[in-house]
Amino acid sequence: MAALIHRLVTQPDLLHSTSESELIRAVHFAVIAASITVQRAGADLPTTKDVHAALQAQSGVTAKETLR
User: pLDDT by residue (tens digit) across 44-62?
Assistant: First the structure.
């Protein structure tokens, strides 16, 4: 949830001018952040850099693409 809020804070127009693919990317970012969180002892929250690294490792998506 925090990752999705992060996307909305850093991209305030996300909900107003968002295509379906942009919403899917935002939710995917949040899902990856949640999956990292539950894998760590003590529910240690991931940094944005951690999420970008996981996205890139998973599918070759670059940090720049996840921020669009």
Answer: 889 989 998 998 898 765 5
